[in-house]
Amino acid sequence: MRIARPLLVLLHVVLETRALRYSNGYYYQTIENSKGNGEIYFNGVRLHVESPQMSVSAIQGSNVTLPCHYRYEPELSAPRRTRVKWFWQPATGEGREKDVMVALGSRHRSYGGFRGRVRLRRSVPGDASLVINPLQVDDTGRYRCEIIDGLEDESVTVELEFRGVVFPYYSPRGRYQLTYQEAKEACEQQGACLATFQQLFAAYEEGLDWCNAGWLADGTAQYPVSVPREACGGKELAPGVRSYGLRHKTLDQFDAFCFTSSIRGEVYFLEHPLKLNFTEAVEVCMQDGAHIAKVGELYAAWKFVGLDQCNAGWLADGSVRYPITRPRPNCGPPDPGVRSFGFLPHHLKYGVYCHKVR
Ligand SMILES: *[C@@H]1O[C@H](CO)[C@@H](O)[C@H](O)[C@H]1NC(C)=O
Ligand SMILES: *[C@@H]1O[C@H](CO)[C@@H](O)[C@H](O)[C@H]1NC(C)=O
Question: Which residues belong to any copy of the Link domain (predicted)?
Answer without folding.
Answer: 165-260, 265-356
